[in-house]
Write a structure and sequence with these properties.
433 residues; 26 strands; Fumarylacetoacetate hydrolase, domain 2; 2 domains; six-stranded mixed sheet; alpha+beta
């Protein structure tokens, strides 16, 4: 529901929030941070600051359901907060919006001001303890482009338009934005090699994905109906599914990705709530003529009417040479959430349709968000056609795949008529040796 927290007229006395490209008052995402010399704790991003939920709680700023939400969100992880569902989350959002608005009482403003930290001085952490990570393949243009490289006559597998394809990835190697990526070792086999060899990945890639945080779980053996999927979604982030393409290519048959994916995944540190995303919901684009309709357990009229979002995703590269020359990062691509073939609710419904139990703090990757036009590819595999056509950068450098020292930065923003734009913060990583 649209409420007063979304009003474009509501401004904040935290002046950096007004017109902020990521975290205006209308966003208020949740995360885990530690201030200088302090321990990890729950916080809310507001402009260039972080509201310390525990300090605000101690100051008596919350009562009722908002206090319940604050108590759950103030700890070292957000798992208990995610598990509690929408009611305490919405109550806490409304109260925080009230105390940070210019209309706040003097007492509220003074108490909240004492609970603010300079975000630039703080360390950000994974927002939740991740028990399970499932990576979907919902970007049909990525699926088709990748398939064209190896199967030009049959790029999409027969099941693709019937089922939101996914695989169970490695939760233990999910890292927060800003970490360094270590180039993985593995088996590789080039076409001209008689036998595989073992060594560092030669074809390191990124994948621009939309991350989904799970809130309340479900009992094993009890599927989540698609019409109830939204109750189990706690928020969203950006996700980089780092991919060792040479290792992946050799190992994937017959069981799919393993060591080519499990070495690391990066996520942006803030959980942007479903409430913040409400003004940016749109209809899921209609399927092309001739495509099969989703099966009944994946069909819901409300989800089709508002299961997609107006999000622009941007990927930037900043090479060591660019940094040395003082040059800005170069944008490699821009894509949109409307390019995904399956909705988030369909992913949740499918994941649990066999009775699989989701748990609070589980995370989904959407699959690579790509389009069909030049400049909309969400990874280098597509952009370079499997490394055959190098990308030219403004300084004369080229890239088939990533080199040591390259920074990859994801950014994403939501915009809609009558709404204040919001962002997700960066998902950034540097390739190490």
């Amino acid at each position: 529901m649209i409420d007063e927290t979304h009003s474009p007229d509501r401004q904040s006395w935290v002046t950096s929030a007004n017109g902020h490209g990521e975290f205006p008052l209308q966003n208020l995402p949740f995360g885990i941070f530690s201030p200088p010399g302090g321990s990890a704790r729950g916080g809310i991003a507001i402009g260039d600051s972080i509201l310390d939920i525990g300090l605000a709680l101690d100051a008596g700023l919350f009562t009722g359901a908002a206090r319940e939400g604050a108590e759950l969100a103030a700890g070292r992880t957000l798992n208990a907060f995610l598990e509690a569902g929408a009611m305490p989350r919405r109550a806490l959002r409304r109260r925080v919006s009230e105390i940070l608005a210019t209309t706040a009482s003097t007492a509220d403003r003074q108490a909240a001001a004492a609970a603010l930290h300079d975000a630039a001085a703080c360390t950000l952490h994974l927002p939740a303890r991740i028990g399970n990570y499932s990576d979907f393949f919902a970007g049909i243009h990525h699926a088709r482009a990748g398939g064209m490289i190896n199967r030009p006559d049959n790029p999409l597998m027969p099941n693709y338009k019937y089922v939101p394809v996914a695989y169970h990835s490695r939760a233990s190697s999910v890292r927060v934005s800003g970490s360094e990526l270590h180039r993985p070792d593995g088996q590789r086999k080039l076409p001209d090699q008689a036998e595989p060899d073992f060594g560092p990945c030669r074809s390191l890639d990124y994948e621009m994905e939309f991350g989904v945080w799970i809130g309340p779980g479900n009992d094993i053996g009890t599927p989540i109906p698609i019409g109830e999927a939204d109750r189990h979604i706690a928020g969203f982030c950006l996700l980089n599914d780092w991919s060792a393409r040479d290792i992946q290519s050799w190992e994937s048959a017959p069981l799919g990705p393993f060591l080519g994916k499990s070495f690391s995944t990066f996520v942006s540190p803030w959980i942007v709530t479903p409430e913040a995303m409400t003004p940016f919901r749109i209809a899921q684009p209609p399927r092309p003529v001739g495509d099969p309709a989703p099966l009944p357990h994946l069909t819901d009229a409300r989800d089709q009417a508002q299961g997609c979002f107006t999000i622009d995703f941007d990927v930037f590269i900043h090479t060591p040479a660019m940094r040395a020359a003082g040059a800005p990062p170069h944008r490699l691509s821009r894509s949109t959430a409307a390019m995904l073939y399956w909705t988030v609710a369909q992913m949740v419904a499918h994941h649990t349709s066999n009775g699989c139990n989701l748990e609070p703090g589980d995370i989904f990757g959407s699959g690579t968000v790509s389009g069909t036009e030049p400049g909309t590819s969400g990874c280098l595999l597509e952009m370079t056609v499997g490394g055959r056509n190098p990308v030219s950068l403004p300084n004369g450098e080229t890239r088939r795949y990533l080199e040591d020292g390259d920074d990859i930065v994801f950014r994403a923003h939501c915009a809609a008529d009558g709404a204040v734009p919001i962002g997700f913060g960066e998902c950034r990583g540097r390739v190490g040796g």
